Amino acid sequence: MGIFHCPFGCPFYEAEGCIDCGLCSATTNEEMVEASKKVRAYLKAQSRQGGSVQKIAVCGKGGVGKSTMVTLMARALVRLKYRVLVLDTDESNPGLYRSLGFDKTPKPLKSLMSRFSYKEQPEGDSHWIMLPEIKVADIPPAYIPTQNGLRLLMVGKIEEPFQGCACSMADVTRGLVSRLSLSENEIILIDMEAGVESFGRGVERSVDLVLSIVEPSFESMAMAEKIIYMAEGMGINRSGAILNKVPSENIKEKMMAELEKRKVQILGTIHFDTQVQEAGFEGRPPNNSKAGEEVEEITQLLVNIVQRAVSD
Length: 312
Prior knowledge:
By secondary structure, this protein is an alpha/beta fold. It has two domains: 1-46, no CATH class; 47-311, Rossmann fold, CATH 3.40.50.300. Helix content is 37%, strand content 15%. It contains ten helices and ten strands. The strands form two sheets. Strands 4-5-2-7-1-8-9-10 form an eight-stranded mixed sheet, with helices on both faces. Strand 8, helix 7 and strand 9 form a beta-alpha-beta unit. The chain is globular and about 55 Å long.
């Protein structure tokens, strides 16, 4: 069945945390389907109800505008007095740091990984990644620069041929997000890689909210349905879609009708904005855009909903 990634991080069958789902021992597609149903049922039963939203995963098909949404939402949260950490997990998209206003990329987390393959204890500035609970203050400045009230972490990029797959980088992301301890008014926005492969690796399991960004295309809406299905199967009870790059009210209504049929909750709409397109082309922050105003309204709405849920 290929390389197996236990959804609970167990190194072997009956290790601590094993629920005896049968995924690791499945030899046929039918056995894998049944085992997956057990995992989904268990995670849904263990899902977090209520509580604050501090870890947000921004997902979607490639090219739908995930990085732009992360940029605009991060800036909106800063204006709402949140301390915002952006985690760039996309191993191919190179421009997020520029959209956020940084002049260079931070030291990538992948630079820590080669040490782990042959030494039991990491050296130098890498001890923090092994902590059972990681606070933002534990992360060395080289990995987490600050600019305009934003902090940026980057897992790393595929830069050379034969560099290998991104599986090890996904492992680092999953471990970091699960052990990251945020203080009050801290939020992490995670710019996920395109598609649903990260869900297969369990990267999103520790997040509080999954946002699926949807552009006007059949493929994007089908992907949104899959993302919401995956999130629910992980026990994440907060998820929804944001329509992006919508050119007209007619298209908006068609998208809403299609996503309603797919049982995808719509959280807001961002219309097509040439200013955002020009900023992306030039590799600069999308300043003073209509899309930014719409994202700010959606962000404020999400914050209000969460605050009411916590107070209730």
